[in-house]
Amino acid sequence: MTYGLTREEGLELVRKHLKNQNLVNHSLAAEAVLRAMAERLGEDRDKWGLAGLLHDLDSESQPDLVTHTSETVAILKEKGLDPEIVEAIRLHNPSAWPGEQRTTVFHHALAAGETITGLIIAAAFVNPAKELAAVKAKSVKKRYKEKAFARGADREVIAECEKAGIPLAEFCELSLCAMQAIAEEIGL
């Protein structure tokens, strides 16, 4: 099925708009998590993966949460990307769209899936081995409960995994496994 962009074209866009390798790695991690979530929920892995890959195209040019996603939405609409993907990407940052809410499984999945990547990467960095392979799912769940750990990983947003239909403990494990599968690609 076509969504207006292939995965390769999406990756090219990411590399064009994001010069910071950590942001590229975050996009790749979000893609992996979203693909795993889609598989678990019987959804379209390619569609959800593309949303994860493209969700932060403007994070360097629009780092302020009040405007973040506005440029991404414009770029993706111009490229003719599937409107459902654009909408999920738009709503992953509600600060830019006051009064609007995430309402679909896809919206909640993207928000939770991209947010948990930061928690998992932080868990890898505090592990003595400093690599994803050494991180255990129970450690991610434990770190989730520590509000002072990885403060930028909003626990309320991560908890939206349950609105998407995946219990939190399972979501931690699913996300970690998805990221471990691409650990070499993202340098962890």
Descriptive overview:
The protein is mainly α and 188 residues long. The protein has one domain (7-180): Hypothetical protein af1432, CATH 1.10.3210. It contains nine helices and no strands. It has helices at 7-17, 21-41, 45-54, 70-78, 83-91, 105-126, 137-145, 155-158, 168-180. The longest helix is centred in the middle third of the chain and has 22 residues, at 105-126. The chain is globular, with a radius of gyration of 15 Å.
Shape: globular
CATH topology value? Hypothetical protein af1432
Radius of gyration: 15 Å
Helical stretch count?
Answer: 9
Mean residue pLDDT: 96
In terms of DSSP E residues, the strand content is under 5%
Taking pLDDT < 50 over at least 5 consecutive residues as the criterion, the unreliable ranges are none
Order of helices and strands: HHHHHHHHH
The main sheet comes to: none
CATH class type: Mainly Alpha
Residue share in helices? 55-70%
The domain tally reads 1
Strand tally is: 0
- End-to-end CA span: 32 Å
What is the level-2 CATH architecture name?
Answer: Orthogonal Bundle
Write the SSE topology.
Layout: H1 7-17, H2 21-41, H3 45-54, H4 70-78, H5 83-91, H6 105-126, H7 137-145, H8 155-158, H9 168-180
Task: Provide keyphrases for this structure.
188 residues, Hypothetical protein af1432
